[in-house]
Fold this sequence. Notes:
By secondary structure, the chain is an alpha+beta fold. The chain folds into 2 domains: 10-75; 93-228, CATH 3.30.1330.60. The chain has 4 helices and 5 strands; from the N terminus they run H-H-E-E-H-E-H-E-E. It has helices at residues 7-74, 93-112, 148-159, 182-202; strands at 117-120, 126-132, 168-178, 209-217, 220-228. A 5-stranded mixed beta sheet has the order 1-2-5-3-4. A hairpin with a 5-residue loop joins strand 1 (117-120) and strand 2. Helix 2 runs antiparallel to helix 3 (148-159). The chain is elongated, with a radius of gyration of 41 Å.
Amino acid sequence: MHPSITPAASITSAASTAQNGGAQKWGAHKWGDGNIVALLSLKLLLLAFFILLNALSALEAHKAKAVLESVNKAFSGRLEVKENLSPQEAGAGHLSGARLMLDEVGQLFESMLPAVYRETTSHGSSLVLELSTQSLFRSGKSALQPGRGLLLDRLVAALNAERNVPVFYQFEFQQGTLGADYAAKQLAVDRAAAMAHHLVRRGVAAEDLSIGIAPIANDRLRFVLWVNDVPQAPLHVQRLDKASPGR
């Protein structure tokens, strides 16, 4: 015998079934919305990541361009001389211009020849640079070491640069001969003559240049730079006669 189902029970069962079905549909709808939100969030993160990569790429390109420009400038053989635009005290303009020239020349040698000895007078009118002969000349020869022509190019550019105040200079080159034999003294004379040729050919006026030999060690040489606010009498050019034995 089958159990009887009353109309009230049928209505209650139908309502329960409808309620459960609606809940399942609502849950499925909420799950679908959650997937869409997660997908959109992932796309936004990816977009932000690509924007960041693009910004980093632009920054690296700018840095690379700056490095290339710096390298090209360093090996172009030109020296940019920065003008001193700071206000000058009355009557002291030539001293500031002189110190600027001395600093530029001293820093140039120190940057390209780290072992150079540098000394500036207290009143800022002269600079002495002493270095080993081998740092400029090839062993046993009067020819320059590779790359030293660029040093001389920059030196002359610094000496002849236009400045906001007139500065006049006189330049000396001395090759050491102390303790040298006849052959070494003759090589010292040849090197001094070669240096004079290099400097004059690059633009140093002959009347502002003095060359010769000096009583310092024969493996050392010296540059001396004098600066003034008015033109000076031409330097006495030492005669580079052939060295004789016993001289």
